[in-house]
Amino acid sequence: GGFRAFIMWSFQPNHTKLAEEIPTITKQSSNRYLRLLAVSRLYLDNFPNIQSSWVTPGSYIGQLALLFGANDLGSTMMEENVVAAAGAVNRMNQEEMIRLIEDIGEIPAKRDTAYNILEVYDKAYV
Hints:
- With about 130 residues, the chain is an alpha+beta fold.
- The chain has one domain.
- The chain contains five helices and four strands.
- The strands form two sheets. Strands 1-2 form a two-stranded parallel ribbon.
- A hairpin with a 5-residue loop joins strand 3 and strand 4.
- The N and C termini lie far apart (about 35 Å).
- The relative contact order is 0.16.
């Protein structure tokens, strides 16, 4: 039982009913997203995985989130229509994700939805 992961996505107001009803509503800043993610890691200590959301804030913020408490960059997106309809159009392939993780000194790995490690991409063992 329990939770496998916590994933915090930033609100994307474009083309949403909420933005129509509250025209002053805006996107969350990257600074606020990273601070809330860090607090989530501290508060949700019973969650084994905190996933970085790169789809809404972009790959750079997704990478920074790994330094703010996230231990999962998420996955490549085959087809993503929900946040795309609200204006988020970020895309990333596997090679880009591996590079982002390596660039901050971490070891990338491929996992399944149950968080079982399928493959480790560690240059030290290649």
